[in-house]
Amino acid sequence: MSAKILAVDTATENCSVALIVDGKVYSRRAVAPREHTIKVLPFVDEVLKEAGVRLQDLDALAFGQGPGSFTGVRIGIGIAQGLAFGADLPMIGISTLEAMAQAGYREHGATQVAAAIDARMGEVYFGMYQRNDDATWTYNVAETVFKPEALLTYLPEQSGEWLTVGTGWDAYAEALAELPLERKASEVLYPDAEDMAFLAQQKFEQGLALPAEESAPVYVRDTVTWKKLPGRE
C-alpha cells in the first residue's frame, strides 16, 4: 500500500496543500503571495477532514524545499516542521523545479521538461528533467540559478521536444528564446503540492524520509542576494 503523504508548498506565489491517501488526492491551492501564512493551515485542516484522516495517521510530511522565494521557502518548511514535530512524522523535501516537471507529465504527458522560475534580479532558477521508465525523474541540467543570457553559453543543444514550465519563460522571454531547445509551451507556472506528494511517495519508498529536525531548505544561491517576491514581508 502506498504511503499516506501530506505535502505543503509556499515557495512561490502559489500556496498549495495536497494529501494522498489510498491513491486518492485531496488538494487546495491559491495564488496569493501575501496570504500564505493565512491560508496554508486552513488548507491542511480541510484536506485532512475531507479524507477523514488525522495527521498522526500519515506516513510522512513533504514540503517544497526550493528554489523559490527565500521567505516563502522558510514559511513552508517552518509550518511543515511544526506539523511533523506535533505528529511525530518524518519529512521529505521536494524540489520545486522537479515538482513542475511532474506537473508537466501529469497534465501533458511530457517526459522531457525544462523548468524556469523567475528568481528576480534578472535571474532564473533553471533545471531540465527527463522521466524514467519507473516514473522517477533524472535531471539533464541540475537546478541552478543563472542570468538568462548566461544560459546560452552554458546549455548544450538538446534533442527532442521539451515542455516549458514556470514563470521564468515569460519573464525573460526574449533571452530564453535564444536557447537551443525545441520547445512546447504549457500553462504550468508554479510548483504544486499535488505533484510534491506524488514524488514524496517515491522517495518514502526509497527510504529517503528524514527526521523533522534534519530537514532543511535548499538554496541555489547565497541567501544574501535573495530578493523577496512582491508583497512578502
TrEMBL record:
GO biological processes: tRNA threonylcarbamoyladenosine modification
Residues covered by the Gcp-like domain: 31-226
Signal peptide region: none
Annotated Pfam families: TsaD (PF00814)
Main localization (coarse): cytoplasm
Membrane keyword on record: no
One CC-aspect GO term: cytosol
Keyword Translocase: no
Subcellular location per the Swiss-Prot or TrEMBL entry: Cytoplasm
Alphabetical list of CDD domains matching this protein: ASKHA_NBD_TsaB
Keywords: Cytoplasm, Transferase, tRNA processing
Domain of life per record: Bacteria
Parts of the chain that traverse the membrane: none
UniProt GO MF annotations: transferase activity
PANTHER family in UniProt: TRNA N6-ADENOSINE THREONYLCARBAMOYLTRANSFERASE (PTHR11735), TRNA THREONYLCARBAMOYLADENOSINE BIOSYNTHESIS PROTEIN TSAB (PTHR11735:SF11)
Family: Belongs to the KAE1 / TsaD family. TsaB subfamily.
Protein name: tRNA threonylcarbamoyladenosine biosynthesis protein TsaB
Gene that specifies this protein: tsaB
